[in-house]
Amino acid sequence: MSTQDDPAAAFVRELEHWRRHRGLSKKDLARRTGFHPSYVSHIESRRHHPTAEFARRAEVALESGNRIWQRYVAYAERRAQGGRLPFRDLAAAPPPIGSHLVIEDEQVTLSLVDGWYELHVRRVLHSLGTLPITRCTVRIDIDRFPDDQDRSLAFHSRHPLTLDEVDFRATIGDGEPEPLTWRVMHRRDAFIELVLLFTSNGVSLPLYPGERTVINYAYRVPKWKFGNWLQRDIRLPTSRLLVRLNFPATTRLTVWGSETSFTAENCADVRQHRPERDEVLAYEWEIPRPRLRAQYRLNWRYADETR
């Protein structure tokens, strides 16, 4: 097994990343977690196996957004499958203190309709930790010329995104969803970040520990502003990602995908199929366990475009 696929190595990489990101030495982390400095050193050098208690305390100390804890769970599950760790140890491990959110399933659909790119996202959210979730953030991020930064900056300064044109909408719940309250957090010419507040018509709808809910949101951007790419950045632990493109069959697209992480860049196969409507072609890319902090990107080229 390669170290890239080894859950123990992935746990150590996550731990080291967040320790350095927080500006802590091994001694600092040991002091915050209540472990001896030599134990932290042994964990990072993989001379000792991580334990649930250490992972829980490290998550609390480093506030990784549950990433460290999820790496430990993946590691513990692998050991349990191999018969090297009793399964009851997993159930006995308490969740990290605080509010932590996991995306169990994310489905992203981008359609080209009458000169507009219309994007719809469906997320199944699971609340972990000990505190309720009351909000989450989403981003609208476009780049007309991603390979020419100066040209793109000049273009978007002349043609900035506006809230009116994106027509953002969001709902919470499955079956009979309710409209979500939202507000703008940050805004630039080609970028809008919004926070979705778990309230609807003045009523609070917190996601309590252990509960799940469904979030849907949608927006649109004129085709001439968007660029020929769609990227998902994995900022929260995600169990499954599915990206779809729905384009008129007359566009005759060439589509390819790529995965970029801190350690590698890989190409991906994108499946093409013809849905029920003959005038539309669909392209699908499914990623069963996307990597944290990795980027998954679809690019396309129209038949009438030059390379």
TrEMBL record:
CDD domains: HTH_XRE. One of its GO terms (molecular function) is DNA binding. It holds the Pfam family HTH_31. It comes from the Bacteria. InterPro entries: Cro/C1-type_HTH, Lambda_DNA-bd_dom_sf. Residues 15-57 form the HTH cro/C1-type domain. This is Helix-turn-helix domain-containing protein. It comes from Micromonospora viridifaciens.
